[in-house]
Structures are given as C-alpha cells and as structure tokens.
Design a protein that fits this description.
about 525 residues; Rossmann fold; pyruvate-formate lyase- activating enzyme; 7-stranded mixed sheet; 6-stranded parallel sheet
C-alpha cells in the first residue's frame, strides 16, 4: 500500500499540474461571467439509480474560462430545483451570459430557463446548444426571441470564440458554428470542423458541487462521468448522435483518460464513473490499452459503460481485464427479437450471433443490462411477445424497455412522420410513446411497456435473492428495490393494469383499420 501511495503521489502531482494548466483562464480579472444551467426536466427514469453530472457543461465551462470569462455551473436538475429557485439564482448570480444545453425532451425547459434569464435582466446574453438545437435551430430562432445565439455542433471552441468576440465588441458572424438573428433574418456561420484532438480540452471539474452526485445502488458512492471518445459511425435510424458528430468517431489518448480518472478519484473522491461514450470500444486495440493502463493504476473505482454486443464477443478472451480495470456494469442495446425490425432500424446486428454475450458477462461477474425498443412502425403484439421471449432467453441481469423515439433531426423521423402522434417534445423521452405503429395504438404500446417491465422484474427478484453473496447481488437487489419503490415507476406500471381494457378495445379497432 505504501509503495502504491508513493507511486501515486509522483504521478498525481504531474497530473494535477497538467489539469490546472488546461483550465487556466486567459485574463486575471474575469470581468465577465457565464452561468450554465441544467433545465429542470425530469423524465422519472434516469433519477431512479442516482444523480448524474452534466459532463458537457464541465467542458464548456473550461472553455469559457480559457476565453477569460468567469464560469459557474448550476445543476438545477440534480439539486431538485424548480423555476422559483432558478429565478432566485439568476438574480443572485448577475451573470452576463446564461447558457443551456438541450436534447429534444429538455428543449422546452431550456427555453423557459433562458426566457426567465431575460426576464430577470433583459441585457443578459442567452446561449443555447446541444443535439436538438443543432438540428432545429431555424425552428427555435423563429419562435424564441429570447434566445440570442445557438451553438451548432461541437461547442467548446465555438463558445470560447463567441465569448471572446462579444467581450471585444466584435461581430458574431466571424465565429464559425453559430446561428442567430440579424434584422429579422436567421444567420448561420456554417458548421465548424470537428476538433482534431480531444486531449487538450479544458475542464471545469472544480465547478461541480460533488455532494450532489451519487449512485443510489452503491452506498456511500460519489458518481462521476468520463468521456473516452466522441461520436458513432453506426447508422441507427432513431438516433441523431451520428449526424451531430458528422458520422465519425474520435478517441482520446488512453493514458490521458486514465490519468483524468485518477485525478477525479484522488481530488474529488469519485469512485463510480459512467463512461458516457456512444461507442467506447470501437477500436479494440485502443480499448485494451486503456484497460491495461487502468489495471496498472489499481484504483478502487467502479466503471459503468455501454457498448455493442459484437465487441463483447470480440473481447471474450480479455474479459478478465474488464473486471480488473473496474468495469462492473455493461449495457447493450438489443432492441428487438424481430430481425426485420432490427434491419428497419439499421441496427447492423444479427441476434443469432450475440446470444452468448450475456453468458460471457455472467461468467466474469459483470452486471449486464439489455435495452429493448417497443413501438417501431412494424410492431405488433406478436412481435412484442417475441421480444419478451428473447429477454427471457438472454436472461440479462437488468432489462430496460424503451419506446421507439426518433429525434426530429434523425433519419428515422422523416420516414415515420405520418405515424408521429405527439408534438410535445417533453414526451420524446424514450418512456412515453410518440410513434403509433401501423397495427397498434399508443395505449397498447404503453401497456406493453409496463407489462414487459413487470414480467421481467417479478421473475428476477427470486434470482437476485438466491445469488451468491457479494457485490453483484447487493447491487442488483439495491437497484431492484429502487426501481420498484419509485413513484414514477409504480405509476407507469399501473398503466399495465388500468389500461388493459381500453387497450383491448384498441386492439379490436386495429383489426378494422385498413
């Protein structure tokens, strides 16, 4: 232990100096201030397991400080604050700039937050970014006069340059990656090229209130997030990430990521980390190098991640490295048992080839999660039954059932436009059905979703209770208790009972819909 501490002290001092260098501000006085706020949207699902850091804002805040602007991150979501508290915070902060990032389900609350900022002080400059604004900037600027600037695409460099230009009294038309209004017209400055390197981005880790972040299934934990890569080159029709990242994938240096993880553990006490990448394991050699570096650090941390089933099959001979590096949770998107539905979603996956994935994870004592999508255009009660049979055959430790929700800027949105029955973006949350299959109603999909959850977890409780004592059993028992005691989940599951008769009537109606 003493040798480990001595080895750690030398490497950590070097890391600390490097992280401080990457977060240095450009000027000493910081006469201007930017306030980043998370819009107070709650879907009810994400918060069952814990409170998650707004990682994107950590990077943006670092860029703002490098541009000579003082930065603050106000995570209203994790604090459970509503608009009354947000208004009070806006008044107290007296920020020159207020910024929000949004995806489709949070866009209304992001807009309301920025509108509130203008109400508090009409001179405040409001900035909006994220996946939804990137794809829908014309709609947003046409209907929201209180939004001054929209950052299109990858935001760190664009935001930093915008703040510098505004601080110097220059024109925003010189900054690539923006959309804004001028003389009643929407102006865009083009799409900024993606960063060639992700390893020099500044970070504002010190701006987070770390007491707000924890994993409820691991007592005494402090939960953080880390990004090892950006982008995805897969073609799933319901996802807009591929378009946002220009259909490319870029990775960080494995050593640098591991050093950052060590920094978070030592400096901020983070012992559970979510790897937020869309596709962290795409480059098998790089991924194994990352695992090796982490194993060498021997940090007492837990890693949660998502990847593709094919990569677990590829890595079956190095799964011991996953576990030694701290990986205790792997989530896999299986989506459907119907190959035709998978092909329609362009999932590029053959179910017959991935059936052994969950056995591999089970053999290495790694918690497995499988996610499934219900309500695709070709969905039927029979196809949902097949999906549930697949769930039982694969036997993951945890299963999530989501509704088919193509984001407005995704390829699949235009293809199913005539089947979209909701125009309230708050419901584009993967929980509420928004697409009505050709042979099912929205209510039927909602009932099926609740029934799938009920059938899976009622069958799993006894398995968890009879598991060998240890971390995995404690984690699964804890997460199941949290899930089943959630008011949101219980309300959602109640639909399965209360909606059975109305959904049966819908089923009869479907037979006559020709």
């Amino acid at each position: 232990m003493l040798l480990w501490r001595a080895r750690w002290s030398r490497s950590f001092i070097a890391q600390l100096i490097e992280f401080q260098r990457r977060s240095q501000i450009k000027t000493a006085d910081c006469s201007k201030k930017i306030l980043f706020i998370t819009p107070p949207y709650h879907s009810g699902v994400d918060e069952v397991a814990g409170r998650w850091i707004p990682l994107g804002l950590v990077y943006l805040a670092g860029s703002a400080r490098q541009a000579g602007v003082s930065a603050e991150i106000y995570d209203a979501v994790s604090k459970g604050h509503g608009y009354r508290e947000i208004e009070a915070h806006l008044r107290a902060a007296s920020a020159d700039y207020v910024a929000c990032s949004a995806m489709t389900s949070t866009i209304h609350d992001a807009l309301k937050t920025l509108e509130l900022a203008k109400k508090v002080n009409a001179e405040t400059v409001t900035i909006l970014g994220g996946v939804h604004p990137t794809g829908m900037y014309e709609e947003l600027l046409s209907g929201a006069a209180f939004v001054d600037y929209i950052v299109i695409g990858e935001g760190e460099v664009t935001l930093g340059q915008l703040l510098e230009v505004l601080g110097e009294g220059g024109g925003p038309e010189t900054v690539p990656g923006l959309a804004f209004r001028r003389d009643g017209q929407i102006v865009t400055t083009g799409r900024r090229p993606l960063l060639e390197s992700l390893d020099e981005l500044p970070m504002g880790w010190d701006l987070l209130d770390w007491n707000d972040y924890y994993c409820l299934a691991i007592p005494g934990s402090r939960l953080g997030s880390i990004s090892t890569s950006r982008g995805c080159d897969q073609e799933c029709t319901f996802c807009s990430q591929r378009k946002f990242w220009n259909n490319c994938w870029r990775a960080r240096d494995p050593q640098g990521v591991a050093d950052e993880l060590e920094y978070l553990y030592v400096t901020h006490g983070v012992n559970v980390l979510m790897i937020t990448d869309e596709y962290p394991t795409r480059d098998g050699h790089r991924w194994e190098t990352f695992l090796d570096v982490l194993i060498g650090k021997n940090l007492p941390v837990y890693l949660l991640m998502e990847t593709r089933a094919a990569d677990i099959l590829r890595d079956r001979d190095i799964m011991d490295k996953y576990r030694k590096a701290g990986v205790i949770y792997v989530s896999l998107g299986m989506e459907s048992a119907d190959q035709a539905n998978l092909d329609a979603m362009k999932k590029n996956m053959d179910m017959d080839q991935v059936a052994s994935v969950f056995e591999i994870l089970r053999d290495h004592d790694i918690v497995s999660e499988a996610s499934f999508i219900l309500g695709v255009p070709g969905e039927t009660p029979e196809s949902i039954k097949k999906t549930m049979q697949l769930v039982q055959r694969l036997n993951p430790d945890i299963a999530n059932f989501f509704t088919y929700t193509p984001w407005p800027s995704a390829e699949g949105y235009g293809e199913v436009g005539s089947l979209i029955r909701e125009d309230d973006y708050r419901k584009f949350n993967l929980v509420d059905p928004v697409v009505e299959p050709r042979r099912m109603s929205l209510l039927q999909v909602d009932v099926a979703l609740a029934d799938c959850y009920r059938r899976f977890y009622m069958g799993k409780i006894m398995d968890f209770m009879t598991m060998e004592a240890g971390f995995k059993r404690d984690y699964l028992m804890g997460i199941t208790k949290l899930f089943m005691s959630s008011n949101f989940v219980m309300k959602k599951l109640g639909i399965g009972i209360l909606g059975k008769i109305p959904s049966k009537i819908d089923e009869v109606k479907m037979r006559f819909r020709k």
